[in-house]
Amino acid sequence: xxxxxxxxxxxxxxxxxxxxxxxxxxxxxxxxxxxxxxxxxxxxxxxxxxxxxxxxxxxxxxxxxxxxxxxxxxxxxxxxxxxxxxxxxxxxxxxxxxxxxxxxxxxxxxxxxxxxxxxxxxxxxxxxxxxxxxxxxxxxxxxxxxxxxxxxxxxxxxxxxxxxxxxxxxxxxxxxxxxxxxxxxxxxxxxxxxxxxxxxxxxxxxxxxxxxxxxxxxxxxxxxxxxxxxxxxxxxxxxxxxxxxxxxxxxxxxxxxxxxxxxxxxxxxxxxxxxxxxxxxxxxxxxxxxxxxxxxxxxxxxxxxxxxxxxxxxxxxxxxxxxxxxxxxxxxxxxxxxxxxxxxxxxxxxxxxxxxxxxxxxxxxxxxxxxxxxxxxxxxxxxxxxxxxxxxxxxxxxxxxxxxxxxxxxxxxxxxxxxxxxxxxxxxxxxxxxxxxxxxxxxxxxxxxxxxxxxxxxxxxxxxxxxxxxxxxxxxxxxxxxxxxxxxxxxxxxxxxxxxxxxxxxxxxxxxxxxxxxxxxxxxxxxxxxxxxxxxxxxxxxxxxxxxxxxxxxxxxxxxxxxxxxxxxxxxxxxxxxxxxxxxxxxxxxxxxxxxxxxxxxxxxxxxxxxxxxxxxxxxxxx
Length: 623
Hints:
With 623 residues, the protein is an alpha/beta fold. It folds into two domains: 9-354, Up-down Bundle (ABC transporter transmembrane region fold), CATH 1.20.1560; 377-453 and 536-618, P-loop containing nucleotide triphosphate hydrolases (Rossmann fold, 3-Layer(aba) Sandwich), CATH 3.40.50.300. It has helices spanning 9-26, 28-43, 45-60, 65-97, 100-114, 117-120, 123-137, 142-171, 187-217, 219-233, 242-247, 251-260, 271-277, 279-307, 313-354, 417-424, 447-451, 468-473, 480-489, 493-497, 520-534, 550-558, 560-564, 599-604, 609-618, and strands at residues 377-385, 392-400, 406-411, 432-437, 440-441, 454-457, 538-542, 568-572, 584-589, 592-597.
């Protein structure tokens, strides 16, 4: 089940270089720490090799004690300096390397925050992110890039250092009186020997890369399989799913994807298992065997030249170590290049994701900062279809907001209420028509400034596992009195009084074992307080009381005029009792506004949708 042919070297270098540039842009100190550490580790062994050879030569030749003593002291001093440098660099590397997975997530997170919401919500984006994370879990993709460059850098410096100490191995001549050993001086023999060494040195990593290529050639198969494993294999880790998993024994459904099915990716009869028993295993074994042959050739050649009198015992130590290092350098170079080529298939979803363009016009006009909050919004012949859909979610919406009023948006599920709010907040742009703010198309305003005039509590809001005060203010440094005031207005005061650490109490237990778990209703109150803290001219509550009990709901509604103040407030609600507190009501049905008016006026229309919805709910609260 191979996907496609391997990429060209131009593509390989281009994509890997781009990935490394991403690391340098977002985490330059991490890159610097890892590369300094690897270069130090590649070059410093040669100091010990060279000095050890001098010491052995001095011992073998019966040299002067003072020179021997000096060589030993220099060797010890250099070893101490190298050890100290290694410790410092490793410490730096460990510090910068901490949380590397989160640092990689940061790269994707920055892109997500920068991209159009329409693309954040797209299926293609979700598929890219899933592939990126699954590849990362098995050690491929962007995670592997920095490791490959480290190996490449290490190989180059190891090779250069080894060559510097190995050159004299081939230039040192065997004495003429050595007889048959003089063959070792012949240029043709030296060239053939070097050629054989290079061939063997190349063969070992090339065979290993060939084995790894089966992972790259099966990239899409692996991405899907690992996506299934990641989804089903970790259901039990998610707190919000734990009750359902246990109640319905969903673990049995999950188990078939990673425990019972021997033919899946992780089973004994899977495609990758067959590759492992077949070509992958054979290539790996051949790679190991070839490496042993090279070691034998090196020892044989060096020992024969030493036996013939070309150099002394100390040089034997130097040459064996140095030429082995040369081999390691060449192998590392080929291995790194092969790994970079294999990894290119796993980088494709990374750059597919990073290259998603921002098509939404960001605007340039400044949104007027009005103290009187007099902002007028008008929908003019607005229609909208979600990307990839032929069905209109909204059709031909025409309306104006009266500033400072309370507006209710009601209707059945799927009628277009939340879509209406997303268009108002410019999370999406209309497919047809235009939305005006003070008579100007909202697309002409600076996007960030326009977003700042809205405070929204969405149905799927999220609180973070941080301190309560930080959740309300959405920042670390905040006005504590203002936060307390917002929590009180949202009806959270009684619960706050029970928290021993007050605003410094962590929500949930993600980062603090003493963190508190909030009920759905309590979390909703905190989310409402967060919208109040922003103090935007428009406050929008999308199903604000869905998780509250009737008493808490009545409390929120009764206090809502005080909560909203001079803001324009928009409710989306299934509980029509909220509409009694609003100045105007929009009734959505199948993507259209079919009724508009006050609660009393709409109830007078006994043939209208609002009357039917009201009475359908009222029967449960009246005799």
